[in-house]
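As a warm-up, study this chain.
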Amino acid sequence: MKRRVLLALALVIVGLAAAAIRVVVAGRGALAEGDAAAADGRVDDAIAAWERAARWYLPFAPHVDDAYARLVETAGKGRPYALPAWRAVRSAALATRTLWTPHAGDLAEANAQIAELASREPAGAASGGPDAATRKTFHVAQLAHHPRPSPAMAWLMLLVVGAGLGGIAYLVRRTDRRSTPVADQR
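Now compare it with the structure written out below.
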């Protein structure tokens, strides 16, 4: 029994390690692709690649922070890339949100910048109101809404699934102990 548990644990560790290597390799590749696009003057392609790199999230992986830094730096250069870069920051931060939001500070800054920039757009008059202040209030409210489940609900779901799996494991162990081998009847 111990051997099976150790084998299963080893397989889980190997699987997690393989997944982690995949995430880091793909994230670094997307970061390099973005850097090459930026060097060629294709800023839109660079923003898209850096967003992909930020979405390949793994705690403590350096490519994630580098991708966010490049996106924020690009946004700081102003028009015409500020709004797409901040939207990429927001998109990556929301995509990697699980039981916590890894780049919550970047998400808050992106939401504030997007609301400010979108409120200044002439096309924004159709959404939110005739003046910039009303449009900014509208955009802040829209950006505050996250369509995904809240972290509290995710924790609750994790607790329920864990309890269910624990119950199944208990029943299997209890059944194994009570069952007796059937004699070969020939």
